[in-house]
Structures are given as C-alpha cells and as structure tokens.
Amino acid sequence: MGLSMQEKKALTNEISKRYQKAGKKEKTEILNELVKTTGYNRKYILHVLANWGKTSVVRMDGKAVRLKASPNKRRKGGGRKPKYTGDFIIVLRAIWAFFWYRCGKILAPFMREHMGFLERPFRITEKDRELLLSVSPSTIDRVLRQDKKKLALKGKSGTKPGKLLKKQIPVRTYYADADKKPGFFEIDTVHHCGTSDSGEFCLTLTATDVYSGWVELRPTLNKAYKWVFQALLDIKSSIPFPLIGIDSDNGAEFINSAMLKWCNDEHIQFTRARAYRKNDNCFVEQKNYTCVRNFVGYYRFSAAAECDALAAVYRSLCPLMNFFMPTVKLISKKRVGSKIKKVYDKKVISPYQRLLVSPDLSVGVKAELTRRFALYDPVKLQREVHNAVDALVSLNKAVNLEGGKSLAVSPLHAV
C-alpha cells in the first residue's frame, strides 16, 4: 500500500528544503528517489520542489489571499562575463560610423574580408582584431542598437507618370531564370528637393544590376529626359560588363521616344514596372536609401555647383559599394499560408565577387574587374566620400544662406 496524501506532503516538505540548496547532480538524485517513492509525475514534483514554501494562502477579511515570497537575489559575479566590451566597442563603433552605418550582416563579412586595410587606420590591437574577426552579425547589431535609433528619416516621392509610348514598352513584374544574369539593370531617380518639390532641383539616377547588386549613381541638373539619357550613356560606357536590359518605373524621364529608340538601336531590352507597384523595382528602390539618402541626406540641391559636388561623392562611393561592400542576395520567395518565406544566399559577398563567379561573363570581363579592384583601397575611398559629403553640405549651406532659404535635415549630420 502506497503513502497517504498527508505522508506525501510531509515528505515533500522535508525534502524541498534540501532540494532548493542542492547542486544539479544532487537534485537529479533527489527527484529520482521522490518519484519512485511517491509515484508523482516528474515534471509536477520538480515544479513543487522548486516553489515549495515560496507561496502561501491566508485569509484576510474573510478572503483568501495568495502571498508570494520575493525572488532570491542573484549572487554577485554569477553568469558569463561579457566578451565584447571597452576598447572593442569603441573600435567597432568607429568602423561602423566611418563606413556609413552598415548593418551587422554586411559589416561582419566586410571586416573579415578587408581587415588588412583596417588595422593601421583604426589602430586595431591584436586582441580587438581577434574579436572583430569573430564577432557575429547579430552581436554587432545588438551592441550598436542605441546608436542606430538616431538614424530614421523618410523622404517624399516625386514620380510623375509618362503616358506616351507606354503600350510600346512591355511590363515586367518578375525576372525569369533566363534573365537572372549580369547586365539587367533597374533604374530610378531620387529627388533632392528638400521639403518642397516646386521649381527645379537636382536628381540622382540610380541603376542597379539585378544579378550582382552592382550600383551606378549619376546626378542630373533637373528631371529633363535629356539629362537622364546622358547619364545612362555614361553608365553604359563605364560599367565593365555589357548592358543587356533596363527596367524603369513609369516616370516621364524614362518613358519617352528618345529612350525607346536608343534601347532599340543598342539592342537593349526595355521594360517598365506597373503603376503604383514599387515592389516591381525592389532592387533599385532599396539602393535609393542605402546608397543615396544615407550619404547625401534630404537637402535641396538645385545649383550646378551642387550637381558637380554630388558627382564627386558618387565617384568614390560607387567603387566602394561595388568592390568592397557585401550585399545580401534574395534567392527565392515562397508563400506559406498568409506569410511570405524569403530565402537568402548564405554567401554575403560584394557585387564584384558575385560577378567573378558568374558563368555568364567572359574571361576578359573578369580580368578587367580584377584589374579595377587592385586600384582601390576601401579606407581611402570612404575617406574621400566623407570629404566629398562635407564639401557638398558646406556648399549647400552657402547656397541656401545666400538665397535666404531654410535648410533641410540630413540624417547623417543629425547624429
């Protein structure tokens, strides 16, 4: 015959005091013994022993009240000592700010790939070097979480539809497997209009290769299609691989007879997105912030000198982004119920590295890419970007003060 309920409670009360002071191995032995003696469920008795004596029920003014003991204070010195502290955080923050606030998924592989360029300029010690090479992307984001909260602004869209010739330009909603090779570019414009889109102002033409993430940036004096067309000609002549196709939104700067004729003459596939569907141009839309707004902010640029200053920024920024900055590539999307599951490439590499492994590029093109890569230093390029942005902002202040206009806010200089 087994133990009665009163005997079980008495035994549990006696053993609980010993259980709460015991170590891990001794607790296992106590549980095994008690389960065998009382027949209790193991999970149930584990919960009872851990909380025995910490709560009690008393009657106050005729009502049952549950009293719970305060939790035990954690012993000082317990737990694992923090690994990433002190000088490491200072160095990491300096690299993160210098290379314009990249997320952990980009910054971690960038530091591992180009640590040789970083050691001397940032005075990295051997201890910090080992930590920078081993730190995970999630840890970088966690350490810099408070710093990242300071960077959050949005601009305004100024796309106006071009109604002519739309029927002659096919709509593209996705890229088939046959089109997933270098040379298919999405293009868009970023308006540098400040807080008002009235009058004339400069724009940036952003062109992004869908396969590799290669990005080209060119400033234009205004939205006239001839400046956009001239910028596209410059991009075609400067990229080290063939331009096969372009995909744009429905803006009048793209949807015009000159653009259509040029594409037909050059045997370039010309497609457009659906109206009011920004996700059709998702590859270039994401670059509008990371490669343009993130660097030159939301100021209003309207003078010819400011357009030239923008060009100076992009001369150093484009090779920095294309040859050194890793990118995360989306492989596939699959609908699971009401949610979309996205699968990303595990290799977080730069557009240059992605082009080198492409089977669709010739040996000569890859040799030219390698030759250009050897000409650059990422720290030098980033320093040139900093200097060019500072010169652009100073020029913008001088132009606006001379004209008596108010300045717009840039997220970079608000930090």
CATH topology of the largest domain: Nucleotidyltransferase, domain 5
Q: Kindly state the mean pLDDT as a whole number?
A: 83
Low-confidence spans: 406-415
Query: What class, by secondary structure content?
Result: alpha/beta
Helicity, as a percent range:
40-55%
The CATH class label of the largest domain is: Alpha Beta
Give me the number of helical elements. 16
The CATH superfamily of the largest domain appears as Ribonuclease H-like superfamily/Ribonuclease H
Walkthrough of the structure:
- This protein has 415 residues and is an alpha/beta fold.
- It folds into three domains: 5-55; 97-148, no CATH class; 166-403, 2-Layer Sandwich (Nucleotidyltransferase, domain 5), CATH 3.30.420.10.
- 46% of the residues lie in helices and 13% in strands.
- It contains 16 helices and nine strands.
- It has helices at residues 5-21, 24-38, 42-51, 87-98, 104-113, 115-118, 126-134, 137-143, 145-148, 225-238, 257-265, 282-296, 304-323, 351-356, 363-373, 378-403, and strands at residues 55-60, 63-68, 184-191, 203-209, 215-220, 245-248, 269-272, 330-336, 339-344.
- The strands form three sheets. It has a five-stranded mixed β-sheet with strand order 5-4-3-6-7, sandwiched between helices.
- Strand 1 (55-60) and strand 2 (63-68) form a beta hairpin.
- Helix 1 runs antiparallel to helix 2 and helix 13 packs antiparallel against helix 16 (378-403).
- The relative contact order is 0.10.
